[in-house]
Amino acid sequence: QVQLVESGGGLVQAGGSLRLSCAASGRTFSSYAMGWFRQAPGKEREFVGSISKSGDSTYYVESVRGRFTVSRDNAKNTVYLQMNSLKPEDTAVYSCAARIGDSKYAYWGQGTQVTVSS
Predict the structure, then answer these.
(1) What is the rounded distance in angstroms from the CA atom of residue 53 to the CA atom of residue 25?
(2) Nearest to 75 by CA among 9, 7, 117, 27
(3) What tens digit of pLDDT does each residue of 40-86 get?
(4) Is 45 left (phi over 0), alpha (psi -120 to 50) or beta?
(5) Contact 113, 95 (CB under 8 A)
(6) CA 26, 40, 48: angle at the middle one, nearest 5?
(7) CA distance 111 to 47
(8) How far is CA 52 from CA 9, 45, 56, 93, in A?
(9) CA–CA distance, 27 with 4 (Å, rounded to integer)
């Protein structure tokens, strides 16, 4: 089992940047593939990006590709979401999640609010 805690959210102007962190408990962090998701008010939760357990493979939803980067540091049990060129439509609660292999994401953090002003 793994527990996840996000940090780094906040208020930023359009065009700005933020880096979110997701710290994981436990000694098996490197066994989990990690994902970032977001949910805006009144909308369904949306996949943002993911990274393999080794960090050698990433995948992004089209709307953030080229602006967002997912990375991880297995020595620090942490996964990151670097967000550049932020837009008001990126405003949402961002959550990280963990899964084993291609299974469903089974472990979730509580989320951190990102607000982008125009």
Answers:
(1) 15
(2) 27
(3) 999 999 999 999 999 999 999 999 999 999 999 999 999 999 999 99
(4) beta
(5) no
(6) 50
(7) 13
(8) 23, 21, 6, 22
(9) 13
